[in-house]
């Protein structure tokens, strides 16, 4: 009768267990890498499909990121099932952990909810120039928790979505046209009709929209000045160019007509 060797049995079991674990580990790594590649591919595919369907870039980015993270979560759950971990128990653990994290990070979750509201109601989109929470810039990205702005002098400003949705939003890119207002002050001794005539002639500049109510308005009167407002309409993207042209035109017309401007008096007190 062959003698039973318990030590040899343990060695065989340990080798088979380690071998099985290594095969599972390699399979999990391979599955995760493939899943990561698939998630990125699906995200790009969704964005391209949205682009072909002419869906707004803001919604396109949101859908792309959503598909990426959902796919990644499915891959992680599949990896856990390879090791024999029940996904139902994982879901219960994640639910409990989510409750604890939610209580600890209420501000972060409010930013997430605000991000969804921004994407849903679209007070602005990527590429718009906005002023939010005291910050101005062009919208670069709208993420789940934050919005990135790029300032005209090329600075990046990251604003939490909760700050944005809880404050006043000024979107100067919302409409295709915009009015340019230039304030002009002249001396009280200047002739009103002549001043109006010269300022109206200053409206003849290149780039303003035809058929719009360009006008010169007498806006205020004081002991030291007569105040005018020169108003023209232009395409939103041409605002700063047209404003510079209008200021230049007003300055030349006033100088050519020798219309006096208020003199700022500085009082010096001897002590």
Provide an overview of this structure.
With 271 residues, the chain is of the alpha+beta class. The protein is 52% helix and 19% strand. It contains seven helices and eight strands, in the order ααααββββαββαββα. It has a five-stranded antiparallel β-sheet with strand order 4-3-2-1-5. Helix 1 runs antiparallel to helix 2. The chain is rod-shaped.
Topology diagram in text:
Layout: H1 6-52, H2 57-82, H3 87-104, H4 106-121, E1 129-132, E2 135-142, E3 146-150, E4 156-160, H5 161-165, E5 169-171, E6 177-186, H6 192-201, E7 215-221, E8 226-235, H7 239-256
Antiparallel strand pairs: 1-2, 1-5, 2-3, 3-4, 6-8, 7-8
Helix pairs in contact: 1-2
Unreliable stretches = 1-6
Quaternary organisation of the protein chains: single chain
Total count of strands: 8
Proportion of residues in helical segments: 40-55%
Q: Report, as a whole number of angstroms, the end-to-end distance.
A: 124 Å
Mean pLDDT: 80
Number of helices: 7
Q: What would you call the shape?
A: rod-shaped
Keywords:
8 strands, rod-shaped, 271 residues, 7 helices, disordered N terminus, 5-stranded antiparallel beta sheet, 3-stranded antiparallel beta sheet, alpha+beta
